Amino acid sequence: MHFNTIATSAILATAASAAAVLPRQAPVPEPIAPNSVFELVALRSASDVHFTWVSAADNRLWLKLADQKASCDKTSDGKAQFRLIDGDLLLYSTSYSQQQIWVDASGMGQGITGYTTGVQPMPSRYSQRGPFVFDQYNNLSLNNTAGFLACPMPDGVYRLWTNAGVAKPAGSEGCLPVSLRASPVSEPNNCLYSDAPAPSS
Fold first, then answer.
1. The pTM is what?
2. What is the pLDDT of residues 145-154, one digit of tens each?
3. Residue 198: CB partners within 8 Å, gap ≥ 6?
4. Is the CB of residue 161 less than 8 Å from the CB of residue 114?
5. How far apart (Å, rounded) are the C-alpha atoms in residues 79 and 33?
6. Which of 101, 166, 146, 92 shows the shortest CA–CA distance to 127?
7. In the record, which residues are listed under signal peptide (predicted)?
8. Where are the domains of the chain?
9. Hey, what CATH topology would domain 35-192 get?
């Protein structure tokens, strides 16, 4: 009996020690409701872009952008708002002229990511509009395979690219792989985001 007590105590102590060193799993959030409005926050620990929000301007997506130059019903807080409808990623708007995200993940495009307005064509024959999907943590990806890169620009903002396996798209230095996690919006803001040539190629 004494041996069994000692053995049981040893097993419990070992289990407790093992549990102490096991990594905690992140809680699984509520899934983003279909067709609902959300914002995207960048996640990259120990970096300048961790917990920064995605903005949209000049036909591109950005982090740490001071002014989206968007025309909105209410004052914009600088965060772009999106909807995901049947794999299409749209900038939120109630107008007929929708703004839709596209990606060119070809060897030529290297993951360049932007948006078109209304009936504007995509910039190349290799461009695609998705499908975009969420994982169980509401992280966005292209076709459940490609994440994103945040590449620093001279003015301190970061331009977002889809990760097409190119570490330095367009020769960009210091690019960081990031996750883009959706956060639901309770009060959507109808906006038209600036439709102009990108600041750089």
1. 0.83
2. 889 999 999 9
3. 58, 59, 60, 114
4. no
5. 19
6. 101
7. 1-18
8. 35-192
9. Trefoil (Acidic Fibroblast Growth Factor, subunit A) (2.80.10)
